[in-house]
Design goal:
mainly alpha, two-stranded antiparallel ribbon, 5 helices, flat
C-alpha cells in the first residue's frame, strides 16, 4: 500500500516535478578528482595515439554526429533535450581525450599547463 506522502505526490505533483524531488532526495554522488601522475598522463597520451584508440575516437565522433543529426530533425519542446544530448556526447568524449594535455600539480590534482605538449591531438578533433 502506498504511503500517504506517495499518494499525495502522485495526485498533486506532475511527473517532472516528482523526478526533481526524487533527485534532490538522492542526488548523484560526486566521487572527487582522481589523482594522476605525470607518468600516467604520458601513458594515456601514448594510448590515444594507438590504432585502436584512433578507431574508437572515430566511432565516438560518428556517434556524436549521429546524435546531432537526429537533434536537427526534432521539433517542439523536445528539441532542446535532443540538442543537449548531442552536445553531451561530444563534450564528454572531448573531455576524456583532454586528460592527455593536463599536468599534475604538486598536490596531485590536475590542471591545465601551458608548457604541456598537446600530444598531437589535432587529428582527433572532428
Amino acid at each position: 500500500m502506498k504511503t500517504l506522502r506517495a499518494w499525495l505526490l502522485e495526485k498533486l505533483v506532475c511527473p517532472q516535478h516528482r523526478a526533481v524531488l526524487a533527485a534532490l532526495e538522492k542526488p548523484d554522488r560526486y566521487f572527487g578528482e582522481a589523482e594522476f601522475t605525470k607518468a600516467e598522463i604520458a601513458q594515456f597520451r601514448e594510448l590515444l595515439r594507438s590504432p585502436l584508440m584512433q578507431k574508437l575516437d572515430l566511432a565516438m565522433v560518428n556517434l556524436a554526429q549521429g546524435q546531432a543529426q537526429k537533434a536537427i530533425q526534432v521539433a517542439g519542446p523536445e528539441a532542446a533535450h535532443a540538442c543537449g544530448v548531442a552536445w553531451g556526447y561530444r563534450a564528454a568524449w572531448q573531455q576524456f581525450k583532454s586528460i592527455s594535455t593536463l599536468a599534475v600539480a604538486e598536490d596531485g590534482t590536475l590542471g591545465a599547463d601551458g608548457d604541456t605538449a598537446p600530444a598531437d591531438l589535432a587529428r582527433f578533433h572532428p
